[in-house]
Amino acid sequence: MAIALLGLSLVTGFAVLGPSPSTARAEQQPLSLAWGDEFDEPAGTLPDRSKWRYDIGGGGWGNNELQYYTDSGRNAAMDGEGNLVITARQENPVDLQCHYGRCQYTSARLLTAGLHEQKYGRFEARMKLPSGQGLWPAFWMLGGTTWPDRGEIDIMENIGREPRDVHGTLHGPGYSGGNAVSSRYVLQSGAFTDDFHTFGVDWAPEAISWYVDGVKYAQKTLADIRGGKWVFDHPFFMILNLAVGGSWPGSPTSSTLFPQRLLVDYVRVWTAPGNDAATAAAVAGGDPIAGYGDRCIDGQRAVGADEAQLTMQRCDGTAAQAWSLPGDGTVRVLGQCLDVPGASTVDGTVVRLATCSGGEAQQFVLNDNRDLVHAQSGKCVDVRDWIKADGAPLQIWQCTGGANQKWRHGRSN
What we know:
Jelly Rolls
């Protein structure tokens, strides 16, 4: 979301209509969760002050926006269903003043400045967008307060009149506002207001890639910065906001219904342990391991819980399903490894995640028959009791050739 906007369009890139899954992430090194917020607090809870600050005011924010940003729970709070809700309202209960006079709208803008700032890595949020002319939700990053010299990375922007479109954009010295370097993603069917979708970037030293639902739709490098300077080489902080009006989206009309809500299921940030070089190598991505019931092995619910059994979940393209097989016998996701507790060989032993050790308990082979075999026991990773639903648990079991033991990785047959 540009601090200053010249003209009505940020788009200088290309439209993509549902990219092929072949453009999905292909992870080279494991990533570790560096920061996150799951928004699981009770309904009415305000954003965690240890993770989020507020921008407050109605000065137009460089874009002639119409809202006054507040720190009120009416504009940003948990819904008790696992989401942060940023709400834009057509109201002014305390006579707030904006750049155009008495404010007509209130909303919220949350940021991690001074709380979490990071150079390179993977940045991702799962969100359901609002609808209506004049609405402008955004998930983005700034490299500092001197704009555009310190850079801006727009992970996701949407304007209400384009319910099927999102934009990913870079702003910097010589390419800001209407001259920004931008790309567009267009849903093949439906709208971003219909359901949740994941939006993310992988940021490396000389390339930034954009993803929707785990599918890469754009990449920008130094070669794309024509006549400008690449300034994406220092820590940035994140921003979540819902603007109303402005030079790009235009003002709401009588057809725009209020209140409007931006729902955020989570925000997560990953990095590779050790150093920037490791992080840069890691953000190339990963691929799902899909199997029985048309579901994917999902690592999120098992991260950090030593005995937590891995489960199958609906394939959603998120980093929790971006598995790598780096060639050392391990199977990795979110910086941890597929593991059988105690290197057990007993049928029914859970399959879990654990800290990567390279030991025998973490050695697996995905063979040409699409069996994922635990090398020490010679047994197969198995979906327990042939369950097809979300949450189906994984175990090791004698290899039977059954469909509940067949797997395909993004780079495998």
